[in-house]
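Duplicate of #3305? Posting structure anyway:
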């Protein structure tokens, strides 16, 4: 390796570090803070930032408040910079958002679906293709969160919707090109909604800096995953941590997954509906479930008790420092936190009772799965190879249609961060 290669590699490495730091802090730190954090020389940082501005990766704005002297600049996303398309496919609707470097998400579309793979993913594939056409080279990848275990990078099973081995990239029209075919398209990352919510919680929420945490996501049923050093433990095939399908509460109902007495039968929108005698399943009844959650003390208490009981079992097994709850888990904790804790405590081993983990609602609420899908796209992009691809596409773009590059500016105006 000669000197030129080494310094080129060092520059590429520092470009990635700087963009990663801007992204992870939510584009809130000033250039001088970042320079200190990354132990860069001031001149090196200036050259790096100038290059990244020229490549339409960064844009600098004066800090909102500063003392005397030269204004302090805050590096943030370039107005024509990279966008991750992130999708949360829930059991009754999907939400599609464009996310900038720094993590700001702008919702582009929300659409209900009938619960079949063809309707849910067909309509979504059309929407993604339209956004790719509109945004052109700015789309650096697509992250898709789904409410079931995901195998082999894209085969999903959702028991409640009777989805078995559904090939998500294929139905979205985003399947990777056949071996030997010309390179095309953008990277697609398909993942489990709870695992994505856990990633977001570890990056931007209440599991930041937590070495071992437990994250539980409550929607129609309940999903959970153990998070170690910021990463969800996915198991050998990526389908591990199906805590919702463990018999933790002594129930005897048969679950759609095929097992009997699953914890997820007792927590979530389906359980709330069942408790008041309404039909449950198939991803239907979200509004009624929200009504039950807001009005039926009894149904909420039963849900919170089951949630606390199962948490105790998982705390005994895994010894997490913190337990975070997203989706309906936030409301259950707010409405019946005392009941939840009262059900949890007796289930804890004596040695766990002395220092129980903190249990709290997610800082990100319902947006965790979407933001985790976004993180998976930026993880692939914020690499020397990802940035090389961006720069190559940018020079192609300069010869292409210049008016397309400004399409997004007006869309973002007036949008607030999640
Ligand atoms: Zn089950």
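Output from current build:
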């Amino acid at each position: 390796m000669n000197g030129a290669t080494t310094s080129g590699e060092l520059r590429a490495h520092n470009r990635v570090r700087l963009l990663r730091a801007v992204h992870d802090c939510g584009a809130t730190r000033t250039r001088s803070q970042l320079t200190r954090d990354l132990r860069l020389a001031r001149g090196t940082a200036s050259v790096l930032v100038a290059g990244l501005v020229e490549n339409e990766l960064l844009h600098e704005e004066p800090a909102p408040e500063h003392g005397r002297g030269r204004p302090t600049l805050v590096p943030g996303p370039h107005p024509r910079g990279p966008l991750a398309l992130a999708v949360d496919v829930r059991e009754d609707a999907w939400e599609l958002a464009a996310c900038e470097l720094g993590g700001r998400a702008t919702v582009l579309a929300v659409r209900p679906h009938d619960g079949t793979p063809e309707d849910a993913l067909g309509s979504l594939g059309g929407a993604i293709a339209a956004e790719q056409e509109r945004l052109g080279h700015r789309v650096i990848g697509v992250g898709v969160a789904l409410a079931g275990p995901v195998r082999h990078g894209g085969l999903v099973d959702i028991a409640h919707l009777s989805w078995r081995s559904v090939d998500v990239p294929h139905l979205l029209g985003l399947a990777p090109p056949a071996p030997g075919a010309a390179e095309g398209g953008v990277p697609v990352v398909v993942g489990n909604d709870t695992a994505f919510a856990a990633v977001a919680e570890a990056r931007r929420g209440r599991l930041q800096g937590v070495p071992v945490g437990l994250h539980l996501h409550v929607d129609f049923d309940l999903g959970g995953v153990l998070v170690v050093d910021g990463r969800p433990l996915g198991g050998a095939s990526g389908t591990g941590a199906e805590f919702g399908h463990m018999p933790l509460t002594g129930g005897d109902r048969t679950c759609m997954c095929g097992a009997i007495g699953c914890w997820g039968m007792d927590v979530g929108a389906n359980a709330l509906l069942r408790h008041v005698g309404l039909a449950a399943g198939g991803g239907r009844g979200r509004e009624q479930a929200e009504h039950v959650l807001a009005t039926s003390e009894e149904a909420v208490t039963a849900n919170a008790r089951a949630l606390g009981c199962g948490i105790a079992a998982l705390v005994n097994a895994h010894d997490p420092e913190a337990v975070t709850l997203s989706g309906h888990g936030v409301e259950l904790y707010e409405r019946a936190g005392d009941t939840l804790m009262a059900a949890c405590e007796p289930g804890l081993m004596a040695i766990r009772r002395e220092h129980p983990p903190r249990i709290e609602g997610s800082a990100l609420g319902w947006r965790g799965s979407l933001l985790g899908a976004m993180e998976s796209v930026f993880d692939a992009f914020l690499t020397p190879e990802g940035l090389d691809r961006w720069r190559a596409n940018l020079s192609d773009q300069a010869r292409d249609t210049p008016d397309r590059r400004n399409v997004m500016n007006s869309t973002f105006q007036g949008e607030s961060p999640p």
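Confirmed duplicate; merging threads. The radius of gyration is 23 Å. The longest strand covers residues 93-100.
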